[in-house]
Amino acid sequence: MADGTLTSSALTRAYLRRIAAVDPKVHAVLRTDPTALRQAAASDARHRRGAPRGPLDGIPVLLKDNIDTRDLPTTAGSAALTGKPPRADAPLVTRLRAAGAVILGKTNLSEWANFRADKPTSGWSAVGGQTHNPYVLDRNPCGSSSGSAAALAASLAQVAIGTETDGSIVCPAGMNGVVGHKPSLGLVDQAGVVPISAEQDTAGPLARNVTDVALTLAVLTGSRVPPAPSGWEDLRGKRIGLWRLPELGPDVDALMTRTARTLRAAGAEVVEVKPPYQRRLAELEYPALLSEFHRDIDAYLATRDGPRDLAALNEFTRTHPAERTCFAGRELFERALAAPAAGSPEHRAVRAELKDLARRSVDETLAAHRLDALAAPANPPAWTTDCARGDNDVIPSSTPAAVAGYPSLALPAGFVGELPVGLLLTAGDRQDARLLSLGAAVEHRLPARRAPRYLPTTPAP
Fold first, then answer.
1. Are 395 and 248 contacting, i.e. CB atoms less than 8 angstroms apart?
2. Catalytic amino acids?
């Protein structure tokens, strides 16, 4: 773009053509923005004047469909929000537009960011149906940012924005062979994003490489990060703690062994660790989230046309036929309605213990072994999508950073058969730039991404 050999209009048209050709296999994109080419033309005019707004000017971006846009529907995947669009853009969208990014469209997601049923099917929503994993189409894309990650795996945009409460950026990134960053809590303005919990929710960027993720994060946060690969540090002398998680299976464990060997050959010191308090974190997280979801979704629904609170949303979901076409469960809605009120003594005690243990889990492990970051598998090989069974997604690696509000970064580590597995890096609070720098160095040594082949099926690993 800088030398005029590529225009935003040409790039945007190429992605729109690719969406039309490829997305019918994947079902990742809910809708494209009819103004995308006008946005691209405006960017081209700025480039011709020698006045681009930064590295994202003219770059096509897809948004998860729980991020408010004033001119496109924002549904969180539910028929309950298919009326009028929100009244205003989310602040993060305002930042993207101000940086000149082309809002290309909205991606499918797990309905209500996977906070509806006990046994949901990731990547399914009443509005968008089922998103498929581009590597093997009968396999699941994982997590609630499933459409954003699958779209990038299929090269339907340059970058995408997802959201995470626990695992919903980093697991889809790992399972679809792309890079996903969950920022430190509060780094990205969360206003205008359909919530689960203000204590854990954050939006974050996904892309096919760490540099594009870092450049997008800089726009989302208004901050500076190392601008190009030449600024990234190498791995010599870095200490990385490997949390193996053998419960994800022997194939994943073998991949972690190979990854550790590669990092050691690049000069890193890799030591094996087991962060403490994981069982207690698992016991406390959902009780806290249930109370916070009731509070935060009520506040959000009050800004939209449709059900005005969780009780009305629960009734809508119970009675609307489209909401039962994959699974009918509303167990989390109903438990949230019955949970202790957010801010009650019972809730405050649970959240305080939860946050304290999550931070100690990371901080104590980093300090005890003098680590620059923790590393763990981001996901198992993708399971077969099955509405009757639901997900098979006990993946504890995302929880410490998600609950603590610390940054994490998933990047491709390799494959089990045809299925991608990611490496999840976690660092301390507000260490996002350092984590991205480390991640780029790891990515350079693990050039593990390869394009998907859209296989209809594959034997189980």
1. yes
2. 64, 144, 168
